[in-house]
Amino acid sequence: MRIICPFCGERELGEFTYLGDAKPQRPAADAGEDAVYDYVYLRDNIAGVMSEHWYHGGGCRAWLKVTRNTLTHEISAVEPTAGAGAAKVGA
Amino acid sequence: MADFSWDVRSPLDRALVAGPYGVQGDAGVALTEIRNFDLIQVMARRGKAGETAKAAQARFGAAAPETPKTVATADATLIWSGPDQFLVLSKGGKHTMAALAPVFAGSASLSDQSHARALISISGDKARAMLAKLSSVDLHPDVFGVGAAAATSMDHTSVTLWRGDDRNGQAVFNLLVFATFAESLWHTILDSAAEYGATIGHSEDL
Amino acid sequence: MVAGAQTHRLANGGVIDRSTSLSFRFDGKTLLGFQGDTLASALVANGVKLVGRSFKYHRPRGVLTAGSEEPNALVELRSGARREPNTKATTAELYEGLEAASQNRWPSLNFDVMSVNQLFAPIFVAGFYYKTFMWPAKFWEAIYEPAIRRAAGLGRAAGVSDPDHYDKAWAHCDVVIAGSGPAGLAAALAAGRSGARVILCEEDFVLGGRLLADGGAIDGLPAAEWVARAVAELTALPDVRIMTRTTLFGVYDGGTYGAIERVNDHVPVPPEHQVRQRLWRIVAKRCVVAAGAIERPIVFAGNDTPGVMMASAMRCYINRYAAAPARRIALFTNNEDGWRTAETAIAAGLQVAAVIDARPDVSPAHRSLASKGGFPVLHGSVSAVDGGKTGVRKISVALTGGARAEVEADGLAVSGGWNPAVGLTSYHRGRPKWRDDIAAFVPDGAPPGMVAAGAANGAFGLGACLREGFEAGAAAARDAGRGGNIGSMPVADDEAFSLTPLWHVAGKGKAFVDQQHDVTASDVELAQREGFQSVEHLKRYTTLGMATDQGKTSNVAGLAIMAAVSGKSIPETGTTIYRPPYVPVAIGAFAGHHRDENFHATRLTPSHHWAAEQGAVFVDTGLWKRAQWYPHAGEKDWLESVTREVKAVRSGVGFCDVSTLGKIDVHGPDAGAFLDRVYINAFSSLAVGKARYGLMLREDGIVYDDGTTSRLAEDHYFLTTTTAKAGLVMQHLEFCRQVLFPELDVQLTSVSDQWAQFSIAGPSARKLLQQIVDESEDLSNEGFPFMGAREVKLRGGLKARLFRISFSGEMAFEISVPARYGEAMARNLMIAGKPFGVTPYGTEALGVMRIEKGHVAGPELNGTTTAGDLGLGKMMSTKKHFIGRVMAGREALTAPNRQVVVGIKPTDKARRLRSGAHIIPKGETPGPDNDQGYVTSVCFSPVLDQWIGLGLVERGRERIGEIVRAHDPLRSEDYDVELCNSVFYDPDGGRQRG
Predict the structure, then answer these.
(1) Measured between CB atoms, does A17 come within 8 Å of chain C?
(2) Domain C166-293+421-479 identical in fold to domain C305-414
(3) Mutation to test the B interface, candidates A2, A4, A13, A15, most B Cβ within 10 Å
(4) Domain ranges of chain B
(5) Which residues of A touch C742 (CB under 8 A)?
(6) What is the DSSP track for B79-122?
(7) Do the chains contact at A83 and C886, CB–CB below 8 Å?
(8) Mean predicted confidence (pLDDT) in C389-407
(9) Which H or E run includes C512?
(10) Strand partners, C277
(11) Residue C345, CB-side half-sphere exposure with 13 Å CA sphere
């Protein structure tokens, strides 16, 4: 599999580390145990298009949001996460 | 009082044996370790990309790279190393931490990487063929021209690879590898180069 | 020794170099062949018919094909450590001195004891493994399996380490083409001319594919000449790379292709510094599969007799190798193409005994060929073959009208039609589709970017192959953004192709479907009767198609027979899933450089070579090589060395390279706030110039990692991690920075390799250090108290970072110098410490001292423990939010009966405590119900003069002083231990604050 890193260009899978579903948002600091429990443990097992977190640890160390079809491995979009390239925030 | 000497030793000091290696005859690959350099990582702070760029322009007389490439300035090479960051490679103490800290104060965070890497320069007819065993990056001259850079991995080890100016009409690839991995990767490089014949040396000059 | 004569070598022709004679040995007999031969063609030229014994029944087998689809002619190639079993004679290039041996026979190929298996054939039916040896169960491993393995099998592995080297490489192109037949060459011409970067892979050692065997005329030129011109043109293009001896074996996501290049399989031993094989990962925008088609056998009784050969293979041996598989040839065909073998035989001066054509009609041209050649055309099917290990003698024919005929011949060519090589196009679960007109499966649902052309796509005529190949090559280049002039398309005539499907001729005797796995037509029928009708079940029940040839000649026939007996059509019956590799690939090629000491990358500490000089024993810790201890002459074992090192530290001073700890620079205005969120304790409140021990949790409340973090400036912290987790913590922190808390202004860099870090520990640590640092530096308790962190100047002017932290319980410092000074630092510490008896110590002594001091490490931070379990619950801030806080508060993670860290020592001081022993209450029976925890870390404590340990024990801290049992079923040990304070040494901590 190959992923087009928005910073580095197309790279082979070996440079990346998979984390998982990028949909769940970390609850706010004051959220209750149920919300955190959901965030930590409850995951959809998606057969189809999924938004995922990948880390380009073997390259530029950016965390990426990859839209991938889990059935075909087709990747339709790759975006930086909010803090990757944050120096340009507000620019 | 004890008599100390603070000798520096490059990470390849022991592993590197100058001279020919592998197949005899015309060497297809030239491997040169560059020793004792200054390497400062510059990381723009949140929302400070513009200020960092201005500071770099003022300091180096050239714009710092914002995409995977290198910028050669009068006395330093600026190498892209990731989003919002680049490395300043230099010799002779002109661009040390102490020298650069005031330049980027408030706009970027600096980290001294001078001792964290070994620098290997790779050239020769078979440099690309040899590197194809180590790197998954396409190094065809149409794709990876002079000045191209990549933050990538070799042998599961993070490296920074860039193409310097051609020498004697041949491509020159420069490789920064983490110091503690350097000896291991060096042996892998030798294994890869052996069939082409290699000539090995080291240099103090960038 | 006198070499055998090449009795079956034709006087003229062939793509062989008759001026280069090669001698080789087969089963000990010396024979001669020519440069350009394969082992199979050389054996054919020498009249060798019997090449091996079959897998299950030990039936005599010869050469069936002339390519990588060969099921029968498998040999052990080479000898000694280079012996390679199951090598296809049909693709093994002949070289001077080649040694090959037949397989699966004993004592010899001609007289094989195990051929009695044929007498027991009824028990070797489909599923016999499951049916025959059911009872008693324990006999399976002891008796049945070894016996079966001896009887059934293929070649023998070398049994010793492979002396050759392999490597792996990447290649990138616009268009990769599999196969250099007419379609592949035409594709390469079109793509290459357009300016595309092209890689043309050909598994053979000569380019041309079927043109080598079947010739023809292209652009008015003889095929060989056209090939030569095409190759010359391609070679002149700078971005076209032709790779012979290279098989494209797999397709992976994102346009990545696996290929195996047999760099030096065609020489006895690879030249020095060269590899035997190279594994390629080819990244291509487009792929053209021009892998051709595989002629398929017809299943009839005796179809495995040596001398029965695919019709196209026979043409290949005659035309390409000038080797005659037989002198009097019969041909059994159901299609037009098979007749070309009769034409070839006659042209080569061989006799044609008869053509047995299953079709009702034969073209006038072929009728006249028969009358000119003086051989009969029999309408019908081969029903039996009379022959044995010496080859075919007589062929029985069931004529269409019901009558019988017999044909005397020493070779039988068979053509059942052609199957496009659909492997590559089907590797992404592509399901080939059935085409009635050619009675074959053709590619469908190929992976993105891949297209089949020519025979691989079911276009069998030469003109069609060129057309499809050229168009596919042009389209692929266009898709890759190349628009150069592709010139004119090569042109040739299209041959007629008419076929009447025939899969199986009913008759007496074994009719083989899968010759490599000895699966017969009756096995397929039996599988159907027993309910294994799905092709996937059929495959696994009968093992059809599961051999090293992956059923290239057998799969379609097998499912056609299944379709017939189950009353379904072939497309309804379907195909099994195709998976790579297309041909067997040596594990060595996948490993490449990564074997033995290069199995994985290694990391060396800055003082590694100095430690090696001192005679250190190294231990692998993750990727690191770390000094484990430094043996002295006369020390009888590691324990004596380690004990000496510990005592030296506790009584004087020692040092240890701790550069393996992960080191991370945390910068930025929000660095403190960031650390507050990732650690359970506060760091924003840490004063500049101070260090603090920090603990990180995972989001689920379990401890992730620990380490000391120092504040070097308002906006700069220096964070350390454990050695094991260094990379993972960096990844985790980057996740926190970029994904969880992007609003914080913080920057992270690994500085693990920048600093050589040494721990200097012992009552004399300060005195030693004072020799190293500049006189102006105040290291007194007042000037630099416990948990201080600051930059210091060393004698000579070098700047270093100094930390007043202790892992050993002694007064200790950690000092960091830029890594290229690491070795000098070790040497200087030895010089400066000489008056104080300085002793370098390794990871074992480090471990002993941390256990004596009750510090937790990897065995306790094991992914199941909470901060509370480690006795660090009080560190958890209640005033701030941090990762893991909410989940750490869950009932089960705060339950009073959790297993917590406690000290453990045997009541018998002479007894050795062992890690992993379970803690059982006195008087209880060991078992899951009474298991209260286990011993995590042990050492021999020089201070206590006995073995001690740490463990995780239920309510352990409340039970100090209690005697429990350490139960160790693995070592059959059971002894009493006392639960005690985990801090065995200096519990007040006076020494480290000293």
Answers:
(1) yes
(2) yes
(3) A15
(4) 19-35+115-203, 38-112
(5) 81-83, 86
(6) EEEETTEEEEEESTTTT-HHHHHHHHTTTEEEEE-TTTEEEEEE
(7) no
(8) 95
(9) strand C512-514
(10) C166
(11) 32
Tell me which of 3.40.605.10, 3.30.70.1290, 1.10.287.110, 3.30.2270.10 is the CATH number of domain A2-88: 3.30.2270.10
Closest chain C C-alpha to A50 CA, distance in angstroms:
17
Q: What type of residue sits at position B93?
A: G
CATH architecture, range C166-293+421-479: 3-Layer(bba) Sandwich (3.50)
Put simply, the answer to whether C824 touches B45 (Cβ < 8 Å) is no
d(CA A9, CA A2): 10
Number of CB atoms found within 10 A of residue C897's CB: 9
Q: Which fold has domain C894-993?
A: Elongation Factor Tu (Ef-tu); domain 3 (2.40.30)
Model pLDDT, residue C128: 63
Whether the per-residue pLDDT at C466 is higher than 70: the answer is: yes
Nearest CA to B36 out of B70, B58, B5, B13 is that of: B13
- Domain boundaries, given as residue ranges, for chain C: 1-157, 166-293+421-479, 305-414, 503-568, 603-659+755-850, 662-750, 894-993
A83/C256 touch (CB, cutoff 8 Å), yes or no: no
**Per-residue H/E/C for C971-991:** CCEEEEEEEECCCCCCCCCHH
Encode pLDDT of C227-258 as tens digits. 999 999 999 999 999 999 999 999 999 999 99
A-to-C residue pairs, Cβ atoms closer than 8 angstroms:
69
- Residues of chain A positioned with their CB less than 8 A from the CB of C697: none
Question: Is there a contact between C643 and C942 (Cβ–Cβ < 8 Å)?
Answer: yes
Tokens read off for C526 = 């039996």
The 3-state secondary structure of C532-584 reads: CCCHHHHHHHHCCCCCCCCCCCCHHHHHHHHHHHHCCCHHHHCCCCCCCCCCC
Gap between the Cα atoms of C280 and C257, Å rounded = 8
Contacts of A16 (CB under 8 A, 6+ apart): A3, A54, A55, A56, A57, A58, A59, A64
Does B25 reach chain A within 8 Å, measured CB to CB?
A: no
Contacts of C402 (CB under 8 A, 6+ apart): none
Class of C503-568 in CATH: mainly alpha
| Alpha-helix residue ranges (DSSP H) falling in C592-748 | 608-613, 638-651, 671-678, 726-735
- The contacts found for C709-714 with CB under 8 angstroms, 24 or more apart, are C709/C666, C709/C675, C709/C679, C709/C683, C710/C686, C710/C789, C710/C803, C711/C672, C711/C683, C711/C686, C711/C687, C711/C789, C712/C688, C712/C789, C712/C790, C712/C791, C712/C801, C713/C688, C714/C688
Q: How many CA atoms lie within 13 A of B8 on its CB side?
A: 12
Nearest residue on chain A to B149, alpha-carbon basis = A8
Compare CB distances from C593 to B43, B111, B191 and report the shortest one's residue. Answer: B191
Average per-residue pLDDT for chain C: 94
Q: Among the CATH numbers 3.50.50.60, 3.30.420.40, 3.30.70.260, 3.30.450.40, which is that of C305-414?
A: 3.50.50.60
Q: Which fold has domain B38-112?
A: Alpha-Beta Plaits (3.30.70)
Are B173 and B5 a contacting pair, CB within 8 Å? no
The pLDDT, as a whole number, for residue C3 is 46
What is the complex's ipTM, to 2 decimals?
Answer: 0.98
On the CB side of C289, CA atoms within 13 Å amount to 32
> Is domain B19-35+115-203 in CATH 3.30.1360.120, yes or no?
yes
pLDDT digits (tens, 9 = 90+) for C1-51: 344 589 999 999 999 999 999 999 999 999 999 999 999 999 999 999 999
Whether the CB of B152 is below 8 Å from some CB of chain C: the reply is no
CATH tag, C1-157: 3.10.20.440
| C738 with A84: Cβ contact below 8 A | yes
